[in-house]
Amino acid sequence: MTDITSAKTPESPTNDLTDLRERIVRHEWDQFQRTNNEGGRAACQGNWPVFHQMRLAQFLTWDAPLLTGYARDLDEADRVGRNLVTEKYGRMMASTAPVEFARDIEPYIPRLSDDRVARQERVIATQVGWARDFRERWPKLGVAMRVLTTAEDTTQATSFETYLRGELGTYSDATFALYEAMIADRAETGRNLTEETILHTVRLGGFADLDEAEAAQ
User: Which Pfam family, any one of them, does this sequence belong to (predicted)?
Assistant: First the structure.
């Protein structure tokens, strides 16, 4: 199977939005390097090309206000001594390691309001639906994705749903509201954010489109 993350990366246009996306990916990478893994340093913490490709593909689906808001979140986290990447992985442990989460993580991260949690869960349900639809239409590419739902989590595998829940939980209220609006807009116009993100991923990997990437798997 051809790894969709391993082919060449095309040159990027130089503009303000491109620069902002690149700064965000680099900022996340810097926080990732300061994230301690219980079993020691993870192999992915040394793989900048794949990290860059996967995170940039996500941010290529975001508009300027959302990018600006998230960049501000990262800056504010640095200012107050937080690490949003560490918190993201910590929040995932609510599913993958609940005892350790309750003891070692939950007391030390910001608590989300009931309203915020409910809004996040509506967003997550929409995105899980999109991911399921994508996997049905592009089964070979789907094999390379995470397992889909929190019910499938194990100590060794974290699902798309749990990963998304962890990430959304790190956004400020202002940034989450922008993200929530983006998801609502995609839903209203019949667009699938998973499909758009994977399309960017395979293009960054040197493929022309999803058909070509699917055939190469």
Answer: DUF4125
pLDDT of 207 > 80? The answer is yes
At 25, the amino acid letter reads V
**Token pair listed for 120:** 């996040």
**Could you tell me if residue 81 is left (phi over 0), alpha (psi between -120 and 50 degrees) or otherwise beta?**
left
Which tens digit of pLDDT belongs to each residue from 167-182?
999 999 999 999 999 9
- Which residue type occupies 107? P
Q: Where are the domains of the chain?
A: 16-37+46-216
Under a CB-based contact definition with an 8 Å cutoff, are residues 93 and 101 in contact?
yes
Query: Is residue 77 within 8 Å of residue 88, measured between CB atoms?
Result: no
- pTM of the prediction? 0.90
